[in-house]
Amino acid sequence: MISQTRMIVQNSLDALLENEVFLPELTGTERKKAFMSLSSILSTPNHVHKSFIRLPLESGEVVRIPAFRVQHNNALGPYKGGIRFHESVNEEEVINLAFLMTLKNALHNVPFGGGKGGILIDPKTLDERELHLLCVKYVRYFSDLIGPDKDIPAPDVGSGEREMDWMMTEYKKIHPGHAYLGSFTGKSVAIGGSKGRREATGKGVYFTYRYLLHDYMRQNEKTLASSHNAFAKTALEHAGRPMRTAIQGFGNVGSVTAMEAYSCPHIQNKIVAVSDRNGTLVNPDGLDIPALVAFASKNRGDLPMTQKALQAAGVSADIHDRDAILSMELDVLFLAALEDQLHDDNKEQVRARIIVEGANAPITQEADDYFSEKGVVIIPDILANAGGVIVSYLEWLQGRETQFYTEEAVYEQLIHKMQETMETILPQFFADPFSLRQNCYIHSLTRLSDVLYRQGQLY
Ligand code: NAD
Fold it and tell me: Which residues does NAD(+) bind (predicted)?
């Protein structure tokens, strides 16, 4: 995964050098030098912080748990990115995710830089007291780095509102008298979080798909019909017709995306499959998504995976194995589980012609190249799943102003921001041969180069 993002960014950087949007005021060697500066600034993080958190367990054992905070780049504003609690967290992964955050914030014009944290732990193996202590100690170990104007963590895989509440409380204790509400985002609403934050990523993921397939197609149908662009052809073939839709992953992102798809008045989605870590549920006539959401919310997030449980949930479906969802006859596949789900070994079995990345990096480089050559439209992670960081920005603003917005106001601003990005990116995407991912990277890099140049950092 690490080399993959870097490789695509390197390709996008190469494309950028040839492009007149890259620092048009510079020519010749000056331009080349600025380009080399940009390339070297982005290829390495500004700081990698690592500690071993000492944690006494209830059993009497004392363990030391590796913990990271990576600060990739802060040209656009304070570092921003989640803290992942997972048993496979490693330094390279955290660096890569921090890099993606720099690009994501630049793409959506969010005034934050890129950061990421990680703790090498399966949080389910700790009891509540141990987990609380781990969160508190993470803040103590990294307390000098964190702050509303320096580096603002948020939840990621394995962490949520509860962990952010604990962490902000510890930050407040360590820095008495300082503004603290903006030090962490993704907090619960009762303690200064934002309404709508929990749903933000899934809503944004679905919006990018709806905007591309419905709003944009309707406005530009005639122009696109005369284009030779393979992606335009795929989008046009699917616009305005019923869609066989599937969602991999039914957690925070997947379940909200599924509800949005189910209730969308603009696109006729028939949700023929959803999956989670235990299996895939299939119904060619369409699944009852509200009933599945209700079941999952009462069952630690899991879908019903026996006929008895399906009956209890009031849902009619066949149960298939976990990865069956990836190779079904579909029009659109939302990936909202983990990284590296579509890869060299299964890419040829994928039938969907539109794929939306709710998860970070769910498609490997080889599979991505393969799909792009075949004209499959992929809405990439940095475009599709930015709803979380956009509403985190709104949470940070609300915390600074100590003025809180209604849920409607949050969604309105979220959609407005994502629409602005789509309006900027899509005309270019349908006019050049690059994938949507590469177009997004080129746009992010252009914005970063412009800012870094004006800050006097490209020499
Ligand atoms: P989550 O833990 O709430 O849900 C993950 C879901 O994936 C669960 O339903 C789980 O059962 C399922 N799953 C796990 N392994 C699977 C597998 N092999 N096949 C099918 N399903 C599987 O996590 P989330 O917050 O929904 O995040 C999902 C992805 O989206 C992650 O990659 C995360 O980094 C990314 N993301 C999340 C946010 C956010 O705001 N939550 C923002 C940006 C990106």
Answer: 201, 252
